[in-house]
Amino acid sequence: MEVPPPEELKQPLVVPYKLLMGPGPSNPPPRVMNALTHPILGHMHEEMFQIMDDIKKGIQYVFQTKSKLTLALSASGHSGMEAIFSNLIEPGDRVLVLVNGYWGQRASDIAKRHGAQVKTLVQIGDTFSIITIDNAIQTFRPKLLFIIHGETSTGVCQPLEGIGEITKRYNCLLAVDTVASLAAVPFKMDAWKIDVAYTGSQKMLQAPAGITPIAFSDRAQHVIFTRKSEVPVYYVDMKILGRQWGCFDSSRTYHHTTCSSLLYALREALALAVEEGLENRIEKQKFCAQKLYEGLQNLGFEFYVEEEYKRLPSVTTVKVPQGINSNEVVAYVMKKFHIDIQGGLGPTAGKVFRIGIMGYNTTPEKVAIVLEALKDALHNCRKSKF
Amino acid sequence: MEVPPPEELKQPLVVPYKLLMGPGPSNPPPRVMNALTHPILGHMHEEMFQIMDDIKKGIQYVFQTKSKLTLALSASGHSGMEAIFSNLIEPGDRVLVLVNGYWGQRASDIAKRHGAQVKTLVQIGDTFSIITIDNAIQTFRPKLLFIIHGETSTGVCQPLEGIGEITKRYNCLLAVDTVASLAAVPFKMDAWKIDVAYTGSQKMLQAPAGITPIAFSDRAQHVIFTRKSEVPVYYVDMKILGRQWGCFDSSRTYHHTTCSSLLYALREALALAVEEGLENRIEKQKFCAQKLYEGLQNLGFEFYVEEEYKRLPSVTTVKVPQGINSNEVVAYVMKKFHIDIQGGLGPTAGKVFRIGIMGYNTTPEKVAIVLEALKDALHNCRKSKF
N6-(pyridoxal phosphate)lysine occurs at which residues (chains A, B) (predicted)? Predict the structure, then answer.
């Protein structure tokens, strides 16, 4: 053997427990983690199809949609962006992206890679008004409007109600990234006339990362089936993938080998959402976010998103106080308390702390723990500077 | 709520155990399944980077390569194809694909979607000679030659030695799909001058599906960094993804949220390969395949790939005997014995049975079990016809 067996792999795997209070992933509950260990099933087994059907129903519930073309992509959250542009956009098509942070920037990057003419409206850390959106659509006449509902880099939550009516008026598709917002705030795909939405598994849904719920409206489905060119990315080609998921009135055909372990975990995560009820979960989120806001204010933090109604209750951003190095605080909290909080990302890098309360960690106790840790960190990290 | 909580998700999740003796996935060993339940880590945590480094070393060992640009894609095996064409091919580039079954057909489909001029050499169920390959490259002058090492749809194993020398002579990149062959037969990425290779996690490597080891040679890396157009698929853009995996001499930057559970499982699967040793595993595979061949011959089966040296030892294809319906046999074996074997796929649909011996199931005992089941099925399914 030219390349000998590496010594590192002769050592045991050691994974410490950490309390994940950043912008995701979060710690899943035991029922979800246990589901990972169920025996592997083949991707075309009857029992697997049953589980996939359960998942489809669960996604329809959490998205509040009756869309038939509903499934989970075997990839991490941002693959949802890739799936949207790959399926709905052809070279030369116009795309309007509302950018209020890092994820809007990435969406615009991916749309360009798919040959779209991209126009962005940029308001980092703020929301967009209906009038701004209406004007932009009227002028630019995009085929698709892309919105990040909950922007984890800035902690902004973009209101969605009323936008669907505008896009319909101009025959524009409405695409929404709900990776960090779903099940934290209300979301009604059908009632709000949204054409395609996806979410993250590893945040409010409390499953591991790597599996991405997505749903396309009938209108979006029609666009896919009448497009002129082939979908460029086979891995997310809904015409083929939808057949494996039994989304069309045709027999199931093979597209790819799904990860049954992740599907079990997602199924159980969705079952927990059903058990708890979306309304209750959203109520709990609001309550815990309030507790966090109060605590952060008491510690003297200033909010990056000043107006409370514009804040995403799952990820709170506060400004890094004068005389404090954000990296130092993040490292301190990790080292001393084994708690994950994060600094900024993209446009907020170095400027904010991002504190997440998600899924299984959405409890007043966890909020109290992270506040205690921050208090200690502020005290000790400030001290070290003077 | 317009879409009420679905009743199906109020039922408990039930997953039966099945012995997976088809073309993959296979049953992972307990150590790998247990690894799935370790606590979730953030994708940018130090401990995660350590595990990713271990994985990189493990992939370098099983591929026998020193390539720096070595990592695991957060997606199922065929995403390896997408990564190859997306990173190495620009519109108009020429690609030559050796098609000896379904997977070669898919590779050619994906290459076309990426704008390549594709030429295929087709020999379903057979291997290609060095002379055929040399002539085709000399005439067509492709930028990249794509080969399926182990074709699960037909059970053919394409010899690779000597091809790298030819491709180098014509300044052509050599890409190899080892999804079903790696760790079943020898594979030497560097010694055989292969520029890019990927494999499946859920087959010989004995991990769950959904995480795909891939490595690019320095030559391939150079092509990626000097291409004119942007890599069209962000999700597999090696220039960015490679930074998260620490493949370049630069600090790590975020690309996507990895699934830590799958990375733990892959790490342990690679540790088992190190522990056992590649040579021993390949020897064991040969031994078990021999046992299977003998047993199938005793049952009166004819091999789809007549010459034994052309067979892939992890997936054996035998012709469906006269008077037998392959679907009936597959269903019978599943129903009575809870064993997964498969019928044909693509060009072999309805024509063959595909019996896999992979990873943890590569034992003489498992071979004996599947042979017993087949014997019973042949007897009972034939009887039902007359």
Answer: 203
